[in-house]
Amino acid sequence: MYVEEDLVFYNQPLVNQIEVFDFMADELEKKDYVTTGFREAIKKREQKFPTGLKLSDMNVAIVHTEAVFSKTEKLVVIKPEKPVMFRNIENLEPIDVDLVIGLILNDSNKHLEILKKVSQLFQNQEMMKDIQNVKSQDELSSLMQNYFN
What we know:
Largest sheet: 5 strands, mixed
Helix content: 40-55%
Distance between the termini: 5 Å
Domain PTS EIIA type-2: 1-147
Pfam families: PTS_EIIA_2
Shape: globular
Organism: Siminovitchia fordii
Structural class: alpha/beta
InterPro entries: PTrfase/Anion_transptr, PTS_EIIA_type-2_dom, PTS_SugarTrans_NitroReg
Protein name: PTS fructose transporter subunit IIA
CATH topology: Mannitol-specific EII, Chain A
């Protein structure tokens, strides 16, 4: 089970990347799903390898770090209250991101499998419209659990 109800966050008042990463790390550390080095590793990786993606209906970021910082196989889904600026993976330009998916994977062999599933999600225009139009935490959580679990 990759998506847990309490790892899906809707309408979070996060204003920048650092807040997103600290919030994610706080939630994952509470559950003992990541090592103490996760927080800094995810920030450093994002600086070197930006993860923002411009899609037709909404912009997303797929944040992750090396498997050594993860203790389990989970996805964190954050739909911030307002878009958060990330850098575009393709041209490094700033883009406003509407959805952040954090990959917490301790098995590097599953990394490509999950990335494939995430990219299929992004290509599913109906599903992306549903995500864009969610009105509650429960709605977002159900969509993500039904898709990934």
